Amino acid sequence: MLKAISITLGNGFEVALIISVLIVWLRHAGSSALSRWVYGGAGFAAIAGCAVLYALKWSGPKKESFTGWTMAVCFILEVLYLIWISKARKVDSAAAHTAHSLWTRGTVGKIFIFLTAASLTVLPLMRVLQFPSSIFIQTYSVVNTELILKFTGGLLGLVFSFLFAMSFLRSTRTLSVRSSVAGSVLLLAAMMLNQIFTVAQILFARGVFPLTPLTMKILVPIINNMDKYLYVLLGASLIWTVTVLLSFKRRKEKLSETWNPAVQRKFKARVRNDKRWLASIAGLMVLVPSLLSVEAVLANQTIELSPAEPVTPDASRQIVIPAASVDDRNLHRFGYTAADGTIVRFIIIRKSETMYGVGFDACKICGSSGYYQKNNKVICRKCDVIMNIPTIGFEGGCNPIPLAYHMDKGNLVIAGSDLEQETATFHQEDLFQH
Question: Helix, strand or coil for residue 407?
């Protein structure tokens, strides 16, 4: 359940933060009317994300290409957004009027906000949209307690993300322009650094840039800590939240006894609402990092994969594995060294008296994270989905990518060419682990 919460909460938090930042700045730039285009862009990103997930199957080089191009576009749009911020920082009335008229006349501002919101939210939204595939669409259709808990966890993650966005928007209504600019720049800088490093990683992995000892020395520590990106966003959000709290504490507006009773009641109600939203954002800024940190600690205790048994093709480029060596109904892992040096892992488990489950030690949803066996269950190491052993060797859900084989004189025979075709799934992992 906790892992399900972290999947939707981590990515939902990023989406909520992006939308909140854009709307907060539009509000202070005098362009609140453009807020609906932020929501429209995020909605379009969700629809486009579904289409991309279906079209690309979200694995291998297609996934990397889409991610790289999307992040490059995001970086360009963020640079333009920062230019807009820097020009709008003048607080005199004439500059404010100019900024307002620039972004409300015609369709230029609407298209810019729409594209910015769509580009920045499409990747985290796609990861949220993958949640049903990685958790609910298992290889069996049995509704059980585990599935209900995961569904509940995923739903809670989305609820917390929505509450964070609402609390953030409500609690920043009185924030100064200077504070809004500072918070926006801080968060955008964190996003831009993540995009630069991700694009660089893909380019080096594809061989566009040469991997020298110096670049490896620089890239490896960065890549090993890419999973800390969410905590950078949390840190920046915490700083902004503290700024909001201090701004509320220093508010000079006080209740006056000279006001008529209706105005006094209205003032008190507004103060009460502000305090509630501030308490909500403060509570969420404690709850969200706590949940993600606990899940991260538990995830680091994930069972390590057993070593893959090396296999070598024969003269006809076939991998021959005696059936007797895999007849114990346990999971067996093998490693084939491809022509480019990539270790391609595959698994074999006996399913019945005459059938074997044979597949790559990877799936189209979780990549090359691999599978392990616990008691009589085969489990995905990344998403904890339990495989239905009779369906291993067939596509669907988090099942291993199928690998063709045939029987010959009591041996399982696998074509080396079939293993060579799946190197992209394992290539990037091996490149930066050696």
Answer: strand
- First vs last C-alpha separation in the chain: 34
Neighbours of 239 (CB within 10 A): 13
- The structure tokens listed for 297 are 């600690």
H or E element, residue 380? strand 377-380
Q: Alpha-carbon distance 319 to 406, whole Å?
A: 11
Q: Looking at this protein, which amino acid is placed at residue 346?
A: F
Q: Are strands 309-311 and 332-337 parallel, antiparallel or unpaired?
A: parallel
CA dist 393 and 65 (Å) reads 28
Q: What is the per-residue pLDDT across 271-325, written as a single tens digit (0 to 9) for each?
A: 888 888 888 888 888 888 887 777 766 665 656 778 889 988 888 899 999 988 8
How far apart, in whole angstroms, are the C-alpha atoms of residue 400 and residue 362? 5
Q: Is the pLDDT of residue 263 over 90?
A: no
The dihedral sign for the CA sequence 368, 369, 374, 376? negative
3-class SS of residue 197: helix
Q: Which of 153, 154, 164 is nearest to 283 (CA)?
A: 164
Question: What is the average pLDDT value for the chain, to the nearest integer?
Answer: 78
Q: Which of 8, 12, 20, 10 is nearest to 187 (CA)?
A: 20
CA 103 to chain centre: 31
Q: Decide: helix, strand or coil at residue 319.
A: strand
The pLDDT assigned to 334 comes to 93
pTM of the model: 0.64
